[in-house]
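INFO  loader      accepted 1 record
INFO  loader      residues=199
INFO  predictor   begin
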Amino acid sequence: MKKVGITQRQLPVTSTGEVRFALDERWSHVLWAYGILAVPLPNVPSLALSTAKELHLDGIILSGGGDLANYGGDCPNRDETERLLLSWAIEAKMPLLGVCRGMELIADTMGCSLVRTEGHVGAVNSIEGPLMTGSVTCYHDWAVNDLSASLVGLAWAGTVLEALATPDGRVLGVMWHPEREWPNNPSATELVRHHFGAA
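INFO  predictor   done
INFO  writer      dumping tokens
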């Protein structure tokens, strides 16, 4: 079984000073269905990377939820963790999937800018492109403004970019949530199995 590390949201600090991480349980279900064991990673850069290396992970998922710190988000340590994992995955030639916020982080790290967009929060959008043609429900209010030379576009909803990748395809980003589309929208979730070469 493939082992794929997945990053997590960071919840507000509790009254007792606890810092808690969270992950939609649907990720465990959809990954298990595709023959992948989900390995949650903490928003602690060195620990997340050490865990990934020690467990010899087969891939990384940068999960969704929240904004990047330089676009108003409140979790810079998550950004730092995910940028480190992205760099490691590229160096190791390992598949990495960025979901929603994760795609935004890929784009931002690789020289793109983001702009506010409307009509993509809780909205069903028609997607077209070489990665996928069909409908997905989106939950984002940021969009990639321009593509750097290190990325290629793979799907659009009108003029809004909804998927991108590095030219070799190892780093893939999508603006919809496969875990929320599973199991009712296979065309929006099968990319997870294909990307990680799972059963």
